UniProtKB/TrEMBL annotation:
Coiled coil: none annotated. Residues 1-23 form the signal peptide. Belongs to the 'GDSL' lipolytic enzyme family. It comes from the Eukaryota. This is GDSL esterase/lipase. SUPFAM superfamilies: SGNH hydrolase. It comes from Gossypium trilobum. Pfam families: Lipase_GDSL. Keywords: Signal. Transmembrane segments: none annotated. One of its GO terms (molecular function) is hydrolase activity, acting on ester bonds. InterPro entries: GDSL, GDSL_lipolytic_enzyme, SGNH_hydro_sf, SGNH_plant_lipase-like.
Length: 349
């Protein structure tokens, strides 16, 4: 009898703990670029879209959603790991409303960057506009939940930022405007300033739990390897060094902001090392190819170049680190999300 009581007490205590875990982070609110855009670009007049097959072929129902992946993206897996919901909807998707967004929403836009000039390259949503959408969302949620409950949700929700790669690969190194105005070091500082001010604005709007992502080893993306074809298609070390330097500066800014903004729970998440491990030793993670992508030839295709008309797309994306020439596969996204949840986000659970 005593044993049964102990077991009963254990299960009752376990059930009591579940709501507490869920309440720790009631929603995930996302800002950024294609790494975390679940389909906002579907509603934008831009050539940078992915709402067609074979994108999404491994998503629920095999449907393309606008995610730049064969399936889910990292924020979807993070949301699931935190016991919120299995996928985060795009704010501009007309299929969803404020009730759906109450537990998670993404304002991200593929192709955007910290720098307004980056969003102009492919006519996507600028970073500052994502903040305007967030303000609009706050007003809607206050009407939906009531002012006090909504404000509490803003303070308890996890605000996640993933952005910056496009500023360098799509803007700085391609067009002469920014490179003639700034050295790489100066441009990094310029972007860090924008990132810091964005976090300050989130803080003013009630955000208290914020995670900002660093840059990946962007010199190892298949597209960049292709541009380096005459040198053996190796990773471009210059780009990777820029990413590492930027991440160090971003970590410094995070440290300063934590001292400046009382009560903020701010951390930096860096995908650099974990993704580099996968690239350097793919077989250890169950991959066969980390140099080329699954979609198309794997060297340069992305967006409309990666469609059903391309006969070269692989049959099993799980063998590849990258889905298209710029974005990870669902399997890679799941592994990166698992790493972030167990390290950076552990203190939020």
């Amino acid at each position: 009898m005593a044993c049964k009581l102990v077991i009963l007490f254990f299960f009752v205590n376990l059930l009591m703990q579940i709501p507490k875990v869920r309440a720790t982070v009631p929603a995930i609110i996302v800002f950024g670029d294609s790494t975390v855009d679940p389909g906002n670009n579907n509603q934008v007049s831009t050539v940078l879209k992915s709402n067609f097959e074979p994108y999404g072929r491994d998503y629920y129902g095999g449907q393309p959603t606008g995610r730049f992946s064969n399936g889910r993206i990292a924020t979807d897996f993070i949301s699931e790991a935190l016991r919120i919901k299995p996928a985060i909807p795009a704010y501009l998707d007309p299929k969803y409303d404020i009730e759906d967004f109450a537990t998670g929403v993404s304002f991200a836009s593929a192709g955007t960057g910290y720098d307004n000039a980056t969003s102009d390259v492919l006519s996507v949503i600028p970073f500052w506009k994502e903040l305007e959408y967030y303000k609009e969302y706050q007003n809607k949620l206050r009407k939906h939940l009531g002012k006090n409950e909504a404000n509490q949700r803003f303070s308890e929700s996890l605000h996640l930022i993933s952005i910056g790669t496009n500023d360098f690969l799509e803007n700085y190194y391609i067009f002469p405007t920014r490179s003639s105005e700034y050295s790489v070091d100066e441009y990094q500082n310029f972007l860090i300033g924008i990132a810091s001010n964005f976090i300050r604005e989130l803080y003013k709007l009630g955000a208290r739990k914020v995670v900002i992502g660093g840059l990946p080893p962007m010199g190892c993306l298949p597209l960049e390897r292709t541009t380096n074809m005459f040198f053996g298609s190796d990773c471009i070390d210059e780009y990777n060094d820029v990413a590492k330097d930027f991440n160090k500066k971003l970590q410094g800014a995070v440290t300063e902001l934590k001292q400046e903004l009382g009560g903020i729970h701010l951390v930096m998440s860096s995908p650099y090392d974990k993704l580099m491990e996968m690239i350097r030793n793919p077989s250890h993670f169950g991959f066969e190819d980390a140099e080329t992508a699954c979609c198309g030839t794997g060297f340069f295709e992305m967006s409309y170049l990666c469609d059903n008309m391309n006969p070269f797309t692989c049959s099993d994306a799980n063998k590849y680190v990258f889905w298209d020439a710029f974005h990870p596969t669902e399997k890679t996204n799941a592994m990166l999300a698992d790493y972030v949840v167990k390290t950076t986000l552990a203190e939020f659970q």
